């Protein structure tokens, strides 16, 4: 009992400290119980969940929706282990998260979106919200229902006022921003025809590149994800009609056909991609990349050269989308992953700049058609505004479990 009370107190103190550090504000969780009857559930069968901070003033009819990230599970084994984490069960999610950066409710920290309805949808399906398998796995009792979660939460927001939206953005970080790309046109279709609707991908442009040992690791992995979750029918048809479904999990193969305006914020040296696409553990059995992956300053010149090659491939994939008058992009040369949901990288005195512009300004200007921002940074290490720190997910540290 005493231990329980102590833990409660520690939790409160740590939460306060973190809110102070992140310059954010706490927002409580909402469990969408009504989704369960529709079979729209997390991997373990628990209800989906989100954090909703209501819009105010001139922002009441504007909706910003952020899909949480957290990679994927690719087979029965990895999806079963996920059910024992917050990424597979809403029973294990912390009840309060800190909203900062693009989710901040203060004009000073988030000038263009602070008074919008701001929502973070928790990620617990392991498929970037694309899965839909009717049968529950008889052996593991795992549910593959990510796409149903997406539909159920959207229905809920529409009923809560999103049906009257004037402005709306579907966004995300990492696996969540891949979901924002994959669901972008579907999202647009849910909203009133007169609404201004755009999609924002933060660290969601995962490229189909080979590992340092030359294996097609991520391509195989995505193919397994799509097969395990029955995702094919929920991926953009403009892609699945041409390519194998697993390949339609790559933004480079779908973004060109997306009709809704899309903004890509991504580090060309995205730290998740370097760790998991270029140099995953399986491709580096002797661990020669271990230190470099943790800290770019520890990379050898040969490793840096390999990373420059990765950047070239990244830019090639991006250029492959062809020109667009509505697309925006902010491709900096930081060693980072997810830069919009953290105040430090979104908008601050010392936050990253590209063409003298913060991410917050670039995204705001693009959304409101003040300026279509399309900039690519010079190669590492030219950019002195980078933090080159790991912002591994958009989950604030307050999310940690004591
Ligand atoms: C499941 O995926 C993991 C991670 O890629 C892999 O290590 C494991 O061998 C796979 N298991 C099966 C049964 O395919």
Strands ordered across the widest β-sheet? 4-1-2-5-3-6-7-8-9-10
- The average pLDDT score comes to 94
Form type: globular
User: Looking at CATH, which topology would you report?
Assistant: Rossmann fold
Bound molecules: 2-acetamido-2-deoxy-beta-D-glucopyranose
Per CATH, the superfamily is Alpha/Beta hydrolase fold, catalytic domain
Strand proportion, as a percent range, falls in 5-15%
Number of helices: 13
Structural class: alpha/beta
Largest beta-sheet characterization: 10 strands, mixed
| Element pattern in H and E | HEEEHEEHEHHEHHHEHHHEHHE
Secondary structure tally: strands: 10
CATH architecture descriptor text: 3-Layer(aba) Sandwich
**What is the CATH top level name?**
Alpha Beta
Structure overview:
The chain has a single domain, classed as Rossmann fold (3-Layer(aba) Sandwich), CATH 3.40.50.1820. Helix content is 31%, strand content 14%. The chain has 13 helices and 10 strands. The chain has a 10-stranded mixed β-sheet, sandwiched between helices. The model is unreliable at 391-402 (pLDDT under 50). 2-acetamido-2-deoxy-beta-D-glucopyranose binds next to helix 2.
Which descriptors apply to this entry?
PAE/NOTUM, 13 helices, 10 strands, hydrolase, 14% strand, disordered C terminus, 402 residues, secreted, ten-stranded mixed β-sheet, Rossmann fold, alpha/beta, binds 2-acetamido-2-deoxy-beta-D-glucopyranose
């Amino acid at each position: 009992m005493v231990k329980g009370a102590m833990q409660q107190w520690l939790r409160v103190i740590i939460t306060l400290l973190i809110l102070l550090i992140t310059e954010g504000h706490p927002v409580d969780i909402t469990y969408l119980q009504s989704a369960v009857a529709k079979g729209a559930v997390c991997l373990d069968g628990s209800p989906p969940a989100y954090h909703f901070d209501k819009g105010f003033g001139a922002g009441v009819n504007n909706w910003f929706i952020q899909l949480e990230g957290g990679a994927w599970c690719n087979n029965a084994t990895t999806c079963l282990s996920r059910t024992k984490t917050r990424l597979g069960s809403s029973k294990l999610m912390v009840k309060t998260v800190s909203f900062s950066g693009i989710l901040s409710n203060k004009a000073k920290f988030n000038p263009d979106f602070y008074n919008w309805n701001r929502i973070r949808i928790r990620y617990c399906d392991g498929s970037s919200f694309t899965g839909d398998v009717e049968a529950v796995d008889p052996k593991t009792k795992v549910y593959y229902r990510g796409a149903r979660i997406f539909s159920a939460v959207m229905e809920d927001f529409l009923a809560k006022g999103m049906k009257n939206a004037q402005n709306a953005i579907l966004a995300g970080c990492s696996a969540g921003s891949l979901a924002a790309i994959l669901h972008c046109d579907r999202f647009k279709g849910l909203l009133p025809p007169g609404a201004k609707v755009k999609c924002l991908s933060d660290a969601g442009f995962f490229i189909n590149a080979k590992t340092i040992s030359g294996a097609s690791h991520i391509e195989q992995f995505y193919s397994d994800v799509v097969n395990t979750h029955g995702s094919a029918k929920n991926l953009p048809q403009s892609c699945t009609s041409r390519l194998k479904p697993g390949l339609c999990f790559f933004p480079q193969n779908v973004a060109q056909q997306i009709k809704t305006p899309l903004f890509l914020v991504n580090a060309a040296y995205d730290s998740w991609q370097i760790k998991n696409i270029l140099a995953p553990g399986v491709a580096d059995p002797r661990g020669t990349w271990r230190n470099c992956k943790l800290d770019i300053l520890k990379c050898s010149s040969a490793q840096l050269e390999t990373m420059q090659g990765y950047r070239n491939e990244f830019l090639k994939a991006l250029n492959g989308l062809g020109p667009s008058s509505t697309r925006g992009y902010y491709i900096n040369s930081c060693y980072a992953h997810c830069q919009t949901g953290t105040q430090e990288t979104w908008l601050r005195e010392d936050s990253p700049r590209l063409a003298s512009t913060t991410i917050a300004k670039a995204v705001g200007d693009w959304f409101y058609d003040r300026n279509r921002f399309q900039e690519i940074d010079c190669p590492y290490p030219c950019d002195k505004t980078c933090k080159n720190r790991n912002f591994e997910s958009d989950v604030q540290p307050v999310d940690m479990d004591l």
